[in-house]
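Late entry, written up from scratch paper. The run itself happened at the end of the previous shift, but nothing got recorded in the book at the time, so transcribing now.
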Amino acid sequence: MPSQPPRQTLAHLPEELLSHILSFLPASSSSPTIHALTLVCTTLNRIATPLLYTHITLTPASLPYLRPLALLLWTSPAHAALVRSFAVRKAYGGHLVPWPQWEGVDVDGVVAGVVGRYVCGNRGDGDGDGDGEAERKEWFRRVREEGEWMGICSLVLRGLERCDRMEFDGWSLVDPRRAGSD
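Output as recorded:
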């Protein structure tokens, strides 16, 4: 009986070839194909994850997961650095899933830190009236307790230092200094 050749799997292909193959997929956070590939094996996870986060698009189906996405981007500089564009497509309001409870992550502390960094952070009015602190407390309440999606999006966008394009229904903002540089 003739011997069968050894069975080859996708994992036997060089990473450069896998990366080239995956580059033909539409890069978007709303792509179920890319998400599925991140779950196959560690090699495909390593290659597909940048594709998953390069162009984040919130749709009515994905907006409910804004809180986990925000927490990931706020606690993982590596993930935040992957984002080049952020879009919202007809995804307004609705119910958000609860903030995730990750081991070792203090959600209140993370949200307070992000709010402290981006809300009234550089006003420098120095009048000591406490308006900045009151505004930070209000932002914390709106984001952490009420889960106001626009407030969360605003704080997420402030932290995406390599994002050069933001799109919302009907308009877009492009950073002319970085557009097309990556």
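DSSP finds eight helices and four strands in the chain.
(Scratch paper discarded after transcription.)
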